[in-house]
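How a chain folds remains the central question behind the approach discussed here. This step matters because it turns folding into a mapping between discrete strings. The sequence in question and its structure tokens are set out directly beneath this paragraph.
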Amino acid sequence: MLDVTQTPLKALLKRRRPGYCLEAPFYTSPEIFAADMETIFQRHWIFVAVEADVPEPGDSTVVDIGGTSVVIVRDDDMNVVAFHNVCRHRGARLVHDYKTSVGNLVCRYHAWTYGLDGQLLYAEHMGDHFDTACHGLKKVHIRSLEGLLFLCLADEPPADFDVMADLMTPYLAPHDLRNTKVAFEMDIIEPGNWKLTMENNRECYHCAGNHPELTVPLFAEGFGFAPEQLDEAGRQQAERYACLVNDNHGAWEASGFPSRCLEHLDDMVTGFRTERLPLDGDAESHTLDTKAACRKLLGRFNDPKSGALHFWTQPNSWHHFMADHAVTFAVFPIDAEHSLLRTKWLVHKDAVEGVDYDVENLKAVWVATNDQDSTLVGYCQTGARSPAYEPGPYSPHTEMLVDKFCNWYVGRMTDAHGA
């Protein structure tokens, strides 16, 4: 058996076989994990939060990407800005709470005080010649895509974010995410490398046998299938589904809701995919009874039966937008074998808990699905540690988007490491 545990990253990238899983060190090696953090998470646009996390001036939220801590704040002009969460005096962490509301940003160590624009306002005992203008907080690139917040830690972020934004804005705008609130959020630590979490999300080959709550309103045909293995009834169902997708796309787009598939998962630096898909039967939303979880609909929607828009971004997010609520997912690597999955449920900002929506009903499907997926990711992580592990082939019918995620990852790492 070929020993890959000591194979250099450059060689592993060069011999990656398209259509197959990555080799084990990509999931287990601390050295490759460090390269991932430097190459992927320090240089690309990372989905981190939503504008609803900081609804009012002075509201802030802290995001940790590896060893880099960033504070996102709503300033007095209602702009969303981001700074490295490091005091310019002696490097103390500036904001300690995940979410808080402040008048100014005040360091707890020596009370250096910064305005919401990051400028240093006050630093006692620094002498007559100390220039506060030279000691403001260091800015971080931040972009809002219709209320979805992305950070880039690089000095020069990828310019093609604008391409994604131009294409995605018409899809997202009808949901009016800037006028939502976070009804519930949860963090879960998955026992697997961040790439396994992402790969698991990029297919539904596993869904029918593992996600009974999620699959109630979803068409099996939407997961992908092998046409040559269908019987006559299966072919008729597949044809019905294809017609339903086409008909719904036409109707939704005529109503001002762009729906047709846009896919740039492995041909852009800022890779993404989107499509609005119908839900089965009379389903309205991702809930246990498939009915709308919130009576107050989002944005321009007046019909709860408007399908579900999905939006995926490389390297770390996926999202589901219905007429009544939205769910966002962000993956943050912890170490080579653990990842944090952060999930947020958004409803209309004026929706009243207990009147317009019930939190338990709102979150039930994805709480269950996240827990199930975490277990599955753990199975794969355990397997990757085995000396018997070797990359297996992806299904060309149900795992083609996993392959595109790996293509994107290998391409970005290759560009950086010269394989």
Observations:
- The domain at 160-417 is CATH 3.90.380.10 (Naphthalene 1,2-dioxygenase Alpha Subunit; Chain A, domain 1).
